[in-house]
Write a structure and sequence with these properties.
Layout (H helix, E strand, L loop, with lengths): L5 E4 L3 H13 L3 E7 L6 H5 L2 E6 L10 H11 L3 E3 L9 H9 L3 E2 L4 H8 L1 H8 L17 H11 L3 E5 L8 E4 L5 H16 L4 E5 L5 E9 L5 E13 L2 E7 L6 H17 L4 E9 L5 E7 L6 H8 L3 H9 L16 E8 L1 E2 L5 E2 L6 E3 L6 E5 L14 E9 L2 H14 L1 E3 L5 H9 L1 H5 L6 H5 L13 H21 L7 H16 L1
Helix pairs in contact: 4-5, 5-6, 12-13, 16-17
């Protein structure tokens, strides 16, 4: 079996740091790559070695497979960990890494190819009797036939890009009169986003929940699941809040979904860490959606409730070691939540908000974890995903995890950019979330910008009034008690009191 002594992390930000920390604990050296925009990034400083691979655009840096492999050859790297995003689900990159005599810390290129196509994935898992949403088994070539099938399964239906993800190339069709228009839009978006215009049809599940199962497989045919994650709070079909376990699954449904996820992985001879995604309807019937052949953004919540370090397991598996964990060894313990802290303005349709982190203070304390790649004074680059951090809390119960999250959000101090923290706090306190009775339509059903009540910033002129009031009060205090001096705490208290009066 090969031994990994040096890993190049083909990524940036918090996930690059997450992988490097695990490698350091294992005594493995790390190499960072970075673009010119990330020259001062934390992952660059943390790694044992770092190499610039190009200008800021990801197409000229983090997506340059040839440059990344050349760095590996120059620096004696044994393996590449792709993290998530960028090249993590690129079968051609995985194959190039293997052909270069390096280890890809992830699944085989064959597994990535099968699960990278939703239609190929459906065909692969069909032999295992996995529940699937009614629809077309192949790409649509005859619109007339597609309309007949749509009428048979019943509107509304969903047109989906075979190579899609993140909500791109996806259109809901409420009635047959809209079919052609929505089909044209779905195909156009699929071509522009993925270079593949293949689309298929599924029955649109109303009030769906998004529940996924974490799996681990080794190169010896052993596959286990590490329970589920609930990922139904989304904006633009992308997750914002995740938790483990789900608040609605019974032990019986959990076991059935776990078995189905393992069979999905077995269908493509999967090894490494992967996630099998399901849609769950109001009756708690579940249907296979897709498989993500990589580490997920939300993997920390699974680590919290199982005690398993998924990144270390990926490295052991890549070295050819058999899984040391048996399914019977795993037990659910406690509850974990994750909120994604994006540099986005939730009051303005969650539009990205780039800028400088004028103030950046992380929350701390028992049961609080922050995975990030920024510090105070750094800029949020315009070239990449606007996620600043992942804030994770853990409690013995779901209620405790929620209360810790509210406390942690309140302690998280970020200024200079708008963030999703106020929205996440809104979710934590909403009755639908607290009761567990919510679905992927949470944002459209319950959220409007007026629900947020951020504290207004104090202008320079207003601050001058506060300061003058403080100085006047301090002078009076000094006149009465010459030895008494005002403290910074008093200054803050005075400012807070004035601010409260102003808002009242």
């Amino acid at each position: 079996m090969p031994t990994i002594n040096k890993i190049l992390v083909a990524n940036r930000g918090e996930i690059a740091l997450r992988i490097m920390r695990a490698a350091r604990e294992m005594g493995i050296k790390t190499v960072a790559i970075y673009s010119e925009a990330d020259r001062n990034a934390l992952h660059v400083r943390y790694a044992d070695e770092a190499v610039c691979v190009g200008p800021p655009p990801s197409s000229e840096s983090y997506l340059r497979a040839d440059a990344i492999i050349n760095v590996c050859k120059q620096l004696g790297v044994d393996a590449i960990h792709p993290g998530y995003g960028f090249l993590s689900e690129n079968a051609a990159f995985s194959r190039s890494v293997r052909d270069a005599g390096l280890i890809f810390i992830g699944p085989s290129p064959e597994s990535i190819e099968v699960m990278g196509s939703k239609l190929a994935a459906k065909a692969a898992v069909a032999h295992y009797n996995i529940p699937m949403v009614p629809g077309t088994p192949a790409a649509i070539t005859d619109r007339g036939e597609a309309k007949v099938i749509s009428a048979k399964i019943g509107y509304p239906i969903l047109i989906k890009a075979s190579a899609g993800g993140g909500g791109k190339g996806m259109r809901v069709v409420e009635r047959e009169d809209d079919f052609d228009e929505q089909m044209d839009r779905a195909v156009s978006e699929a071509i522009s986003s993925f270079g593949d215009g293949s689309v298929f049809i599924e029955k649109y599940v109303t009030s769906p929940r998004h529940v996924e199962i974490q799996v681990l497989g080794d190169q010896h045919g052993n596959i286990i699941h590490l329970f589920e994650r609930e990922c139904s709070v989304q904006r633009r079909h992308q997750k914002v809040i995740e938790e483990a376990p789900s608040a609605i699954l019974t032990p019986e449904i959990r076991e059935a979904m776990g078995r189905a996820a393992v069979d999905v992985a077995r269908a493509c001879n999967y090894y490494g860490a992967g996630t099998v995604e399901f849609i769950v309807n109001e009756k708690l019937d579940f249907y296979f959606l897709e498989m993500n052949t990589r580490l997920q953004v939300e993997h920390p919540v699974t680590e919290q409730i199982t005690g398993v370090d998924l990144v270390k397991q990926m490295i052991y598996i890549a070295e050819g070691k058999p899984l040391a964990i048996k399914q019977a060894d795993l037990q659910l313990k406690g509850h974990a939540l994750e909120v994604r802290v994006y540099a986005e303005d939730p009051a303005n349709n969650f539009l990205p908000d780039v800028g400088t982190l004028d103030k950046y203070v992380r929350p701390q304390g028992n049961g609080v974890r922050v995975d990030d790649g920024f510090e105070q004074g750094m800029d949020i680059p315009i070239y990449y995903d606007p996620m600043i951090a992942k804030l994770i809390t853990y409690g013995e119960s779901r209620e405790e995890a929620i209360q810790k999250m509210i406390r942690a959000i309140d302690e998280y101090q970020i200024s200079g950019v708008q963030t999703t923290l106020p929205f996440c706090r809104f979710v934590m306190e909403h009755e639908a979330f607290r009761s567990g009775q919510f679905d992927t339509g949470f944002v459209s059903k319950y959220f409007t910008p007026d629900k947020l009540t951020p504290t207004p910033d104090i202008t320079e002129s207003e601050l001058a009034v506060v300061l003058a009031a403080y100085l006047l009060e301090n002078q009076k205090s000094n006149a009465a008690q010459p030895k008494s001096n005002g403290t910074p705490a008093q200054t803050t208290a005075q400012r807070s009191k004035w601010k409260a009066n102003r808002m009242g």
